[in-house]
């Protein structure tokens, strides 16, 4: 059978991304080259070869994503293996470095809010970009991502939002969907139910947690390369997650990672319960909490704090709108509005 023709539209989406974020992609590649070397003594040529392991399976099973990655490489003037490496960074040396974050969903008869702080190395903050992606027959997407990566954190025009927490449970299956491509798939879904069904049908290459919400419900989807578990909205109307598994995954080993992960969950839950009916401003304030500083919900790069909060996103799922604050949410940024509201 002859190979299918490339989707020119998706190639151009990638090309525009690569060309527009050429500087940020270049800096991001320097950042990750240094991190791979620091964490595992891998020179970038070896990182590229590890990324090559994913080349054929992504091209075959998820050709739209592969063509978009190829478009980014062309637009940025980079080898496609460079951009593949960014998109499968969670799988190349899984568990040796991971971003730490706190996410939450709150719901009542009057509102449905979803949000998180994204915490990572300070140097990568300047390489974050906001993307708006419009594709035929799929919801439009607005997301915050690391330049060169096609899936991250955000919302879509169908009112579905996605947040992300790194997990360090062991296990890798290179034939399944890499984490950041899974985030993109979730952002292309029209409901929580559709996102869950597709992700679980395909299977995930490594471990993480996605908090996926819409106007009616949310589910915390914990997964490894061989297991899935769903954290439902509790009786008080919320879900909170950080960087450790809340549910049992039979046969999976999860090494202890961040001492502050469980306290962050406990603090967020306590604050939500204390708030009762959560206003929009009150929801945004939840992510400003500094209990346990510097290793807090609102993290800082001081003392034991290895990485600070680089941005906060809060999504009003009923309005299909979000506010993104760059840096720590107490840093004074009034926020950028991302909206599908008519």
Automatic annotation (TrEMBL):
State the Pfam families in the record.
AAT
Q: Which InterPro entries does the entry mention?
A: C45_proenzyme-like, Peptidase_C45, Peptidase_C45_hydrolase
Name the residues that span the membrane: none
Looking at the record's lineage, which domain of life comes first?
A: Eukaryota
Protein's recorded name:
Peptidase C45 hydrolase domain-containing protein
Peptidase C45 hydrolase domain segment(s) = 111-329
């Amino acid at each position: 059978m002859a190979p299918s023709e490339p989707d020119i539209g998706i190639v151009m989406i990638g090309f525009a991304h690569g060309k527009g974020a050429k500087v940020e992609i270049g800096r991001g590649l320097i950042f990750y080259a240094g991190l791979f070397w620091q964490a595992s003594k891998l020179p970038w040529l070896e990182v590229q070869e590890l990324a090559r392991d994913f080349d054929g399976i992504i091209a075959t099973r998820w050709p739209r994503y592969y063509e978009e990655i190829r478009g980014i490489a062309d637009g940025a003037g980079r080898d496609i293996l460079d951009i593949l490496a960014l998109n499968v960074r969670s799988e190349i040396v899984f568990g040796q470095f991971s971003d730490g974050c706190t996410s939450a969903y709150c719901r009542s008869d009057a509102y449905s809010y979803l949000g998180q702080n994204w915490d990572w190395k300070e140097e990568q903050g300047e390489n974050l970009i906001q993307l708006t992606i419009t594709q035929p027959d799929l919801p439009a997407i607005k997301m915050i991502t690391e330049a060169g990566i096609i899936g991250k954190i955000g919302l879509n025009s169908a009112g579905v939002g996605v947040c992300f927490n790194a997990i360090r449970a062991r296990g890798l299956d290179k034939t399944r969907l890499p984490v950041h491509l899974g985030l993109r798939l979730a952002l292309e879904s029209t409901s929580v139910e559709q996102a869950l069904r597709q992700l679980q049908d395909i299977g995930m290459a490594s471990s993480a947690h996605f908090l996926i919400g819409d106007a009616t419900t949310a589910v915390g989807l914990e997964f490894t390369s061989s297991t899935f578990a769903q954290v439902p909205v509790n009786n008080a109307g919320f879900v909170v997650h950080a960087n450790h598994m809340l549910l049992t995954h039979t046969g999976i080993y999860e090494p202890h990672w961040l001492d502050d992960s469980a306290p962050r969950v406990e603090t967020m839950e306590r604050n939500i319960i204390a708030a009762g009916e959560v206003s929009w401003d009150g929801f945004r304030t939840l992510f400003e909490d500094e209990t346990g500083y510097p290793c807090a919900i609102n993290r800082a790069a001081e003392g034991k704090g290895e990485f600070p909060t680089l941005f906060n996103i809060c999504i009003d799922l009923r309005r299909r709108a979000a506010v993104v604050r760059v840096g720590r949410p107490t840093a004074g940024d009034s926020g950028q509005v991302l909206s599908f509201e008519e």
